[in-house]
């Protein structure tokens, strides 16, 4: 497949969206990370005490797969209050990679639900944090209420090849979905 595609990278705050885009981008990624404020702390779900910044608009990166397909990656903010930005970022998106964290699967429900509401095809990548416990694919599918055809992969957002494989899984799913619709 040749051309270009807009891809969203979504998930709750602290799941690794900024990290994944920075890991795979062949250009210097654009990041709108800002220091978390006291005002935001009242609104946002607390993640780790060590997390001091958060995306406030978007992250942007670019990767070329197979020398022919350019993916423009748009990372969404993870907080509920930025949902209007999601709707704008979703315009023209071919699909989305939903990152989840098994240490707090419940936090991912909103992100997956928003993709379904926006009718954006997606795959799910479980970001393997060092202190997360392994779960079977069946348990993860059940916990996230995923349809059988929704791709589910394990990745480490800090590792280039692992993150690229998660994106390839999404693109393969999108191609298959588009082929079936034709």
Automatic annotation (TrEMBL):
This is ATP/GTP-binding protein. InterPro entries: Gliding_Motility_GTPase, Gpn. Keywords: GTP-binding, Hydrolase, Nucleotide-binding. It comes from the Bacteria. It holds the Pfam family ATP_bind_1.
